[in-house]
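Is this the right way to post structure tokens for a design question? Let me know if I should format differently. Anyway, here goes:
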């Protein structure tokens, strides 16, 4: 009998050990579900991918920024064969297949490439439509996106010149525009307001495009584009007065109501507009839309430095691809070498939705995407002149799903009183029913002639209730202070998966809420209000303090008074004492304020290395000032400006500055 109990106890302990080991196992990461595989490229070929398209026979068409076009046979095999199809073209930033021919967008034209003698090489280079150029370095052109009716859509950049080098300008017609080009070569201007519209594509039969942050564009985003829209940057409005323009807002009308800040110094030189810190009376795009109704807001903002810094091509996930995410949209990013995921919904006739991180770690900047016949996703990469994360300047990779389902937020939907979050796997009812597992905050961006915008009008939105569905696949949260046209950052740091108690692979969603839907709100009886972050305090016996003794405890108001007293006792005058450097804290701050999106300690990325900044011998205070109001003229060799980061508190900016200066040799 004793032996039986001994064996039983050993078995019980082993089972318990196995249980706790399983419960404590590490949460899987992106790479455990979506693997990045490099496509072998023959020696001597420098891709610098500008365009990708999968041909009907499974071959892959690639265009390069150096003007070449390749056809890759067996592109998903270990031995792909590269065949040069065309060459001598001008910085091709888009490629498409239509009716047996390839169409590419050069800087100044849409070109048809045909192989009429069937020898495997293009022998006909036909101009479908050409548009003017000035020769400015920034006059990139993108596309074509092919519409269901067979027409082509092309987007164009503005340029940057001269003394006001920071201000996008359109010096020839249709720069900063979207154009529709019919198969017969006739062109119709379609929409204006583009600054650097690097990605466009049809999602179903509707046109979308991505934009990069810059002057008048507070952050990157995904826009739903309709004929006659104005999307924010006013430079192209200089051509809106022409009779063929569907955009009715003219540049003269815009500047009569909006201060574009062309201020001058006493000597007559222009003053570069800077972000105004602690500004109270600033404009937002949604505010300007009230008197310029044609101004189109992004369907979804992609917060700068979090979901990219140079958003590129949007592409729909086809049915049967990438598991639970089919039908959603993936968006590449050239600067951060990553892909984001977007869930869209239509509320009151307008698109809005949630954006999530999806997969980072590509070798170079992700500019173009195309689906392979085997369900994997080709990523075409480049960074010359632009910079990017990763250890390569160009390349071609594939993103392959291994068939396993990650624990993720599959979708976030707006509700009359908050949001409904759908999971890919059942959530643990205890953690998912706890208010402490959720947090929501909202922000927007300035609409101003400065490169990008810090998040402004930031507020916390209190989560007051949660209702978990019986199957654990949906959690509906009740949220106070929902604000139309604001980005709502929804974090689920405490929610766990039911079976393995995994955390979410990506616990944060960024929902752009343009419109709050109508419908039934949850009642107090339907939701859980349990909040484990609020400790349950047991009643303690009250005793009289000894004569002359102080209070036995510090109450909430007393604690606030002590905190205030300590704060006010701090010296108010400026100090140059460097704060102590805590490596773990610094790592967190660099991630929190998205510094790692553009900077590396030792090497150049989108921005200069921290060691190179340290070599300039700035004081900590000077670095703080440059964080809040960057001076891109100090770093003329970098194409991408740093946006103002005025939302970084000075105390934390000083810690970052001290870390940077600690790297000085």
């Amino acid at each position: 009998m004793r032996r039986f109990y001994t064996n039983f106890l050993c078995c019980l302990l082993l089972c318990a050990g196995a249980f706790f080991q399983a419960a404590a196992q590490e949460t899987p990461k992106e790479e455990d579900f979506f693997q990045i595989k490099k496509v072998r490229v023959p020696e001597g070929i420098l891709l610098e991918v500008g365009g990708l398209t999968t041909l009907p026979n499974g071959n892959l068409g690639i265009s390069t920024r150096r003007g070449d076009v390749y056809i890759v046979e067996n592109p998903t095999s270990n031995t792909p064969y590269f065949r040069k199809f065309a060459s001598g073209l001008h910085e091709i930033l888009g490629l498409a297949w239509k009716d047996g021919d390839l169409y590419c967008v050069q800087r100044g034209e849409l070109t048809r490439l045909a192989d009429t003698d069937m020898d495997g090489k293009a022998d006909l280079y036909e101009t479908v439509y050409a548009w003017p150029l000035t020769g400015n370095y920034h006059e990139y052109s993108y596309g074509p996106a092919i519409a269901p009716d067979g027409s082509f859509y092309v987007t164009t950049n503005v340029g940057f010149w001269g003394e006001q080098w920071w201000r996008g300008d359109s010096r020839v017609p249709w720069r900063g525009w979207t154009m529709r080009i019919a198969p017969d070569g006739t062109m119709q201007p379609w929409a204006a307001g583009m600054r650097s519209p690097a990605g466009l594509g049809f999602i179903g039969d509707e046109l979308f495009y991505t934009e990069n942050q810059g002057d008048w564009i507070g952050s990157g985003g995904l826009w739903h584009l309709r004929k006659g829209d104005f999307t924010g940057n006013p430079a192209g409005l200089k051509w809106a007065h022409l009779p063929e323009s569907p955009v009715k807002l003219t540049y003269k009308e815009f500047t009569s109501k909006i201060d574009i800040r062309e201020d001058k110094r006493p000597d007559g030189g222009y003053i570069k507009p800077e972000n105004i810190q602690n500004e109270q009376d600033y404009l937002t795009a949604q505010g300007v839309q009230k008197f310029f109704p044609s101004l189109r807001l992004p369907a979804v903002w992609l917060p700068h430095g979090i979901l990219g810094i140079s958003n590129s091509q949007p592409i729909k996930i086809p049915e049967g691809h990438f598991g639970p995410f089919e039908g959603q949209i993936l968006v590449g990013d050239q600067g951060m070498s990553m892909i984001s995921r977007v869930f869209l919904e239509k509320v009151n006739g307008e698109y809005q939705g949630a954006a999530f991180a999806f997969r980072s770690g590509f070798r170079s900047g992700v500019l173009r995407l195309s689906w392979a016949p085997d369900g994997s996703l080709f990523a075409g990469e480049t960074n010359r002149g632009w910079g990017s994360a990763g250890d390569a300047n160009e390349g071609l990779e594939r993103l392959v799903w291994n068939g396993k389902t990650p624990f993720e937020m599959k979708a976030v939907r707006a509700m009359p009183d908050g949001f409904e979050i759908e999971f890919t796997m059942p959530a643990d009812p205890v953690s998912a029913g706890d208010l402490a597992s959720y947090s929501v905050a909202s922000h927007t961006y300035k609409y101003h002639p400065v490169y990008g915008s810090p998040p402004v009008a930031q507020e916390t939105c209190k989560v007051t209730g949660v209702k978990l569905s019986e199957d654990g696949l949906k959690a509906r949260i009740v949220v106070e202070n929902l604000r139309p046209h604001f980005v709502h950052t929804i974090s689920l740091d405490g929610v766990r998966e039911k079976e393995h108690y995994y955390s979410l692979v990506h616990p944060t969603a960024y929902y752009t809420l343009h419109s709050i839907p109508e419908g039934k709100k949850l009642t107090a009886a339907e939701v859980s209000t349990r909040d484990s972050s609020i400790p349950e305090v047991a009643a303690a016996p009250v005793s009289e303090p000894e004569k002359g003794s102080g209070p036995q405890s510090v109450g909430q108001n007393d604690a606030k008074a002590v905190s205030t007293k300590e704060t006010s006792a701090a010296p108010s005058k400026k100090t140059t004492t460097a704060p102590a450097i805590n490596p773990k804290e610094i790592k967190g701050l660099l991630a929190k304020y998205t510094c790692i999106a553009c900077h590396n300690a030792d090497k150049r990325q989108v921005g200069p290395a921290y060691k190179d900044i340290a070599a300039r011998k700035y004081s900590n205070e000077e670095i703080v000032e440059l964080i809040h109001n960057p001076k891109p003229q100090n770093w003329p060799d970098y194409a991408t400006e740093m946006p103002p980061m005025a939302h970084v508190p000075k105390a934390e900016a000083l810690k970052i500055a001290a870390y940077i200066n600690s790297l000085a040799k």
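Format looks fine. Someone answered above. Worth noting: The first strand starts at residue 34 and ends at 38. The CA atoms of residues 54 and 60 lie 5 Å apart.
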